[in-house]
Amino acid sequence: MNGLKKFVRLFFALCTLLFSCSSQYVLLNPKELHRNQTVLFETAEGEKVSGIVVLANADALLVNDSYGEERGFLTKNIVTIKGPQPVLDGNGIVVSEAEIDSFLTNSNITVYAIVGGIISGGLSYLAASLMTHEVLNIDNDAPVYVGATAGLTVGTLLFAQSGARRDREKAIENILLSRTEPGYEISLPDQYDDIMLRQKIKEIVEERMQMEAEIDQLLNEMDNIEEPAKKGEN
User: Does 192 map to a domain?
Assistant: First the structure.
């Protein structure tokens, strides 16, 4: 029984190691964002916001958040910002996540998952059998089936993840190819966008100044409140 517990602990430690792979999201520079880029950031006030970049420059960021609301933020008030590594075409225009999703197929993820499941399941069975009977000397086949099933699951997920990455790469390749075709219209920020963003910056600054003024006024009022006379004092 102790051997079985040792086997289970060893196996799940291996699973934890396998699943500690890096996330798709990477740290981004707030001053180098692009329109239609997917972002997740945290403000100096501790608010976490996710959404799509509408407009951005070195001073401010305008996003369409996950609730569909358009919101503006000063870049100096953003602590950290993450998102998928941006993919740019030959004109420096970002390929949006929505566009990638529209080009995605599941051809590779399906094949990788099936093949990976067969390979990992077979190898896991052999490894679990060897460890159970030869290394740990356990006269029980239960750890073998546990190890084979878990190995099948983990292997399928890992191979499927590789297939998903390949499907994404293929979708991006098709998008970039479609943007080189005749008739494709390039959408670049214009003067109106710049004016709109500058107006939004002004609104954000004014709103923040008003909030700080209200906080200062509240603190002054609290300082002016006289403490109630203690009992027994005349």
Answer: no
Domain carrying residue 68: 29-85
Q: What are 43-59's pLDDT values in tens digits?
A: 888 899 999 998 887 77
Q: Structurally, how many domains does the chain consist of?
A: 2
Residue 66 maps to a domain: yes
Q: CA 180 to CA 89: how far, in whole Å?
A: 9
Contact of 72 with 204, CB cutoff 8 Å:
yes
For residue 229, CA distances in Å to 105, 180, 226 come to 75, 80, 9
Judged by DSSP in three states, 142 sits in helix
Q: Are residues 109 and 160 in the same domain?
A: yes
What's the Cα-to-Cα distance from 4 to each of 80, 134, 163, 216, rounded to whole Å?
45, 13, 34, 65
Identify whether residues 51 and 79 lie together within a single domain. Answer: yes
Task: Please tell me which residue, 85 or 197, carries the higher pLDDT value.
Answer: 85
Element (H, E) at 51: strand 48-56
- Asked if 110 and 68 sit in the same domain, the reply is no
CB contact at 8 A, 48 and 20 = no
Q: Which residues of 70-98 are buried (b: 16+ CB within 10 A; e: fewer)?
A: eebbbbebbeebbbbebbebeeebbbbbe
Residues 156 and 129 both lie in one domain? yes
Task: Look at 126 and 227; give whichever has higher pLDDT.
Answer: 126
Kindly report the number of other CB atoms within 10 A of residue 133's CB atom: 15
User: Whole-angstrom Cα distance, residue 112 to residue 90?
Assistant: 31
- Considering the domain boundaries, does residue 79 fall inside one? yes
DSSP secondary structure, 53-89, as one string = EEEE-SSEEEEEETTS-EEEEEGGGEEEEEEEPP-B-
